[in-house]
Amino acid sequence: MKKTTESLHAKVDTSNDAPISTPIYQASAFEAHSDFFYSRKNNPNVEEFEQAVSILAETKYAIATTTGMSAITLVLNLMKPGQHLVINKHLYGCSYKLFQWFCEQYQIRLSIIDLTDMDEWNNLPEADMVFFETPTNPFLYTVNIKKISEVFKKKNPTTLIVVDSTWATPLFQQPCKVGADISLHSATKYFSGHSDVMGGIVLTNSQPIHEKILSSRFYFGANLSPFSAWLLRRSMLTLEVRLKQHKDTTNILKAYLEGRSEISKIYYPEIDGEQLSDYATLIFLKLAKPYEKQYKVLTENLKLFSTGTGMACVTSMIAQPFSGSHASMCDAEKREMGLDESLVRLSFGLENVEDLQQDLAQAFSALVKEDA
Ligand SMILES: Cc1ncc(COP(=O)(O)O)c(C=O)c1O
């Protein structure tokens, strides 16, 4: 059976009434004879969401959390004072800040390295944990999970390889099959798909890691609420069809934008077919020199793209990472990452592709050349 079919049918059996859609168990506590205990620990809606994701990700365990950031925090909490954490240079702004803050607070050594640059690999240090996104936010660079895992584990077999796979989705990438010990997602993005719920998920095949993270979720209170779990589980039912449509639209609009003179570069991940089997929805583009300060003109003219930090939604969105997703970093840190005001992120929704193309055409035509 295809895993997408199995995931659609994932169900926590809770009632003799057998409703087709699992009801929302909006309860904080359960009777002593129940399989469930207290919703901070476990809840039928949360478990059903976890099951659906672990089937797609092909992992033994899944732990749902309040947000993507709390998923990262629970994983970071596996680190001890004095240990060494290596992170990739290209990272979501809040994750970057969390790592800096956490490591300073708990005396953990932090190294920021460009893990996309194979020339650096001979000099990689020994580490206790390595954390990276692939594809990365921003720029959609891909990091080779298998090779990175081999290099670090050769130096220290107990190094934990952690992959934030948010932008690939568990349909297109399964990091724990190719060398990661832990993978995680912000469920707020593709899983939700409607910009109406926040969540996160941690995935692993290791029982000790699973137990530690489960305990931290219980003690820290980072559990997903039953309603959020229900919404996410419901949205997951359409993940595959949404991604198909997002992908077709993205391919058409990417090809269209490549021909526009106002754009100097389009960023799109490398789909190698081994690690990343496909991709959908998001692209980054760089406004060409005479237009690079005109992000605002673009947003003022676009009718179908809402502004904001959200993405992978059924409706299209536009964002400027410099002032949005990476706003918590200082300008020097952003520039070190290669980020400036000319970088634009587009998330293509499910609108008719010709409508989106027309909207982009009129908005890009409204840009005015400025002297350098
Ligand atoms: C790659 C990546 N990881 C994690 C997060 C954090 O997720 P959340 O906003 O659900 O906390 C984000 C948010 O944009 C992200 O882009």
Summarize the structure.
The protein has 372 residues and is α/β, with parallel strands linked by helices.
Describe this entry's structure for a reader.
By secondary structure, the chain is an alpha/beta fold. The chain folds into two domains: 3-236, Aspartate Aminotransferase, domain 2 (3-Layer(aba) Sandwich); 239-365, Aspartate Aminotransferase, domain 1. The chain contains twelve helices and twelve strands. The protein has helices spanning 3-8, 44-57, 68-76, 93-105, 145-155, 169-172, 207-220, 226-236, 239-258, 295-301, 331-336, 353-365, and strands spanning 61-65, 84-88, 109-113, 129-133, 160-164, 182-186, 200-204, 263-267, 282-287, 306-307, 317-319, 343-347. The strands form two sheets. The protein has a seven-stranded mixed beta sheet, sandwiched between helices. Strand 4, helix 5 and strand 5 (160-164) form a beta-alpha-beta unit. Helix 3 (68-76) runs parallel beside helix 4 (93-105) and helix 9 (239-258) packs parallel to helix 12 (353-365). 45% of the residues are buried. The mean pLDDT is 95. Residues 67-69, 92, 95, 133, 137, 164, 166-167, 186, 188, 198, 200, 325 line the site of pyridoxal-5'-phosphate.
Helical content (DSSP H or I, runs of 4+): 25-40%
Number of domains: 2
Give the DSSP E fraction (strand runs of 2 or more residues).
15-25%
- Strand order within the widest sheet? 1-7-6-5-4-2-3
Average pLDDT, all residues: 95
Major sheet details: 7 strands, mixed
What is the count of β-strands?
Answer: 12
Structural class: alpha/beta
What pattern of helices and strands is seen along the backbone?
Answer: HHEHEHEEHEHEEHHHEEHEEHEH
| Total of DSSP H or I helical runs spanning 4+ residues | 12
Oligomer: single chain
What is the second-level CATH architecture of the largest domain? 3-Layer(aba) Sandwich
User: Which fold does the CATH topology of the largest domain refer to?
Assistant: Aspartate Aminotransferase, domain 2
**Corresponding CATH superfamily of the largest domain:** Type I PLP-dependent aspartate aminotransferase-like (Major domain)
In the CATH scheme, the class of the largest domain would be Alpha Beta
- Intertermini distance: 58 Å
Stretches with pLDDT under 50, minimum 5 residues: none
Q: Which molecules other than protein and nucleic acid are bound?
A: pyridoxal-5'-phosphate
Rounded to an integer, what's the Rg over CA atoms?
A: 21 Å
